[in-house]
Predict the structure.
Amino acid sequence: MTRILEFLAGKDELRVVITDSGVGGLYICAELEKRLRGASRSCPLRLTYVNAWPYTYAGYNDLPDPASRARVLDRALGRMAAFRPGLLLIACNTLSLLYGTTEFSRAPSVPVMGIVEDGVDLFHERMTEDPGGSLVLFGTRTTIEAGEHIRRLVQRGIEGRRVFAAACHGLAAAFERDPDDPGLARMVGECVCQALQGKRIEGTLYAGLCCTHYSYLRDIFRISLGRQTDGRIEILDPGERLVRSLTDGLKDKAPEEPAGEITVEVVSKIELDETRRHAVARRLEPASARTARALIDYTHVPDLF
């Protein structure tokens, strides 16, 4: 795993572009800002979060086929590269999987990292440590139908019978429309029922959240899973693992040490209404007030890509 330290080496300033299809990956931006804020460094940092949700009426998972999804992502990546970042971080499982199908990926003009590898590493670690445990993966339709997480886990020696998955189609879009919608709990419950139907769970059940939007709903997933099984449940979040991996090796800042400047900005192709912005900002505030404020004061760029 490449670390922030490697990108900082020899630079007077570092810009990191973080992207997701929607606001889900903003919590990764917040956690990254929190860790970098407390780290020993002198290089100014600029975190630019790009909401790559393509259309007001449709997200990537609503587009008709992989080719059309790849074309839209290609345009978005080209525009993000124009920011000339030292790192482009795809904080989205769907877009990380689509990335390999884009023209941009064949000769990227900037360093690009995705989230899938960290998720697989995290899941493999838990399944190896606990041979009696089972793993259920929740993600978007594109992520689950790709089957990439399970394929990589099986390649690394995890028995396929221990891992299963369910697509919570529409859940991310519902969160985008209204993060406070009480109907989100019902949607999670239906997805959990679908995932566990006919399954006999013995030992710990690990739940992998393979969509960054689901990180905001982890408590709802935990409650819903608890209603379906009597065993121990552990939520596994690849986003948390991604931040730890990126910041590995950074030393904590001494109290008297001056902090290098950190700037956070949020850019979105689609308009984000005020109610939605504040609902997500409340969830970000405990980790990063700077990221929460950047979301509230976001920049709307309709022709972003």
